[in-house]
């Protein structure tokens, strides 16, 4: 018996089955008129129908071999390039609406697509295509004394749903990861990015259909608004896993209200601790990168802890201020800074704030123990870093800080699926069950036990 039992590498075209009597490639994004008389029951039935089509598509995707899926990813990339104009036009509408509605600068940054960012999405799809297929990977195996041959192998999750806000890049990232790992995906991308997501989903579906894979492997419930999202959260049995990405309120709403199993992606109240041995040049360079490169994302640093014995604080603070960072500093930090470096008094609220902007909370501590305790009190479990030339301090920090990613002498911006070689990411999981940290291809699979015998019975 071969691996084809769990991953048919010579499968017939998954799109050529009877189940392909499906919707046209753009049907799942047909807009519901604003004055539509749809009742809650109508919306529930419509979302359930989408989920049922996703289930059929997931079964066919699970049988697609690597070459087929990689061709689909590259076709999607080419289609994104070909449709860049339409994507940017739709995105400009969303951004204009966001500005008119008073959307924050941080959210507008996440909402905005540019030619460069679209090129980045295309590159991420190519990276995914170059990665090994996780489906069929043998996690472990053995032959028992009674002759039974065991293998635990990775298999697709099935139907993956994602609820996120003002992040059109997530539409492509999650769809790409889901497709490569043999899943179908249902997207709720939020009102703020609805015009952009409508174009992106259409492009994705048409690309899949063009290579003979089921268009229904990518669907959206955006046309049903919050009511559609609520139905999606309750669709246990139709949806296998739900992944929220966004701010604290969105994530907690999903975690509290979902009947579907949730992988929680937490907010990023990220810390960097500079101990007394860290070099000034390294500290300045890393802090500037971690805070200013793209302050609106979850792996940007939000709190800086500086050892009272470190001489680097004035240089780091001066560089940050020159870059436009507003410092929210405790009394000891303010006393240690020259009058020429502006700061404002930190409040208790600052230590728990994910600014996602050019703001940084700064505190002085007297020991590694005090730094770790501060992190334990205020961290969201996303990413923490230590800057040090002391190996013992580095080892203690790694052992004592309980976050999804712990970094030594590098920027927190590296907590990213693409940067860590995962191709892309669904999100950064801050929970401990199933997946933790950047969620790539393997994290969108589960496992199956294969038991092969020759007539054995249990005694």
Please provide a written account of the structure:
- This protein has 459 residues and is an alpha/beta fold.
- The protein folds into two domains: 3-265, Aldehyde Dehydrogenase, Chain A, domain 1; 270-420, Aldehyde Dehydrogenase, Chain A, domain 2, CATH 3.40.309.10.
- The chain has 15 helices and 16 strands.
- It has helices at 40-62, 66-82, 84-100, 105-111, 115-130, 168-180, 194-210, 225-233, 248-257, 280-292, 313-322, 331-336, 348-351, 368-378, 391-400; strands at 138-143, 149-156, 159-164, 184-188, 218-220, 241-245, 270-274, 301-307, 326-329, 344-345, 359-365, 383-387, 405-408, 428-429, 437-438, 445-452.
- Strands 10-9-11-8-7-12-13 form a seven-stranded parallel sheet, sandwiched between helices. A four-stranded parallel sheet has the order 5-4-3-6, sandwiched between helices. A three-stranded antiparallel sheet has the order 1-2-16, with no helix packed on it.
- Strand 3, helix 6 and strand 4 form a beta-alpha-beta unit.
- The longest helix has 23 residues, at 40-62.
- It starts with 39 loop residues before the first helix and ends in a 7-residue tail after the last strand.
- Mean pLDDT is 89; it is low at 1-35.
